[in-house]
Amino acid sequence: MNGDNARLADAVPTCSCGGHCAQIVMTITLPGRNAPAALVRNVPAEVCQNCGETQFSIPVTVRLMSLLQGSQQPEDVAIVPVYNLAK
Ligand SMILES: [Zn+2]
Q: Most exposed among 15, 24, 65, 73, judged by the fewest C-beta atoms under 10 Å?
């Protein structure tokens, strides 16, 4: 008797800690190409409900990397305040 407990492909991603991840959409900051930083809105991510680690899927990571290489024009340019807790 093999395969009764074969794992189904799990639609919910699992963290390396074994926790389940929730799908969220977040705004992240990347190093900017012609600016100190660039904001990217609506980035799909998975957040572990156990340890809180944020992960990006491979297709999302590829898109973020290509943004860093200037693949796409920004839809908006904003001046953002910068704070420094070291001061
Ligand atoms: Zn985790």
A: 73
**Stated pTM of the model:** 0.73
Distance 5 CA to ligand 1 centre (A): 24
Neighbours of 48 (CB within 10 A): 19
Among residues 41, 51, 40, 48, the alpha carbon closest in space to that of 23 is found at 48
| pLDDT score at 12 | 62
Give ion ligand 1 contacts, CB < 5 A: 15, 17, 19, 48, 50-51, 53
Provide the pLDDT confidence category of residue 7 given band limits of 50, 70 and 90. very low
Q: Spell out the domain ranges in the chain.
A: 21-68
Ligand 1 center–CA 18 separation, angstroms = 6
Q: So what's the pLDDT on residue 47?
A: 95
